[in-house]
Amino acid sequence: MSADDEFPLGWVRVCATSELLPGEIQVTWDGDTPIMVVNLDGELHALEDRCTHEDFELSAGPLDGDQIECTLHGARFDLRSGEALCAPAYAPVRKFPVRVADGAVWTRDDR
pTM for the full model? Predict the structure, then answer.
């Protein structure tokens, strides 16, 4: 399989592994779903790139350790679990699977 092909079952290529260094975020789309993949010291985590409070892109916000803050109203989310950590968000962000293969990072909306 070439790096530009998709895995079976709807896997979407996010980027080359060299383009997602520790502390960085890459965003891709799976259909209508924006998915951000973040590298936390070598651990890759994928979450829906939408704040559950106001449907704003989370990837625009700052990273703070294993958390991200929505720049719109300050809601914070755990990047490992998607859990909402403070108001005004109460619902978690959807979490998605991540794979590394052929030098690339892959994810999918598995709902």
Answer: 0.90
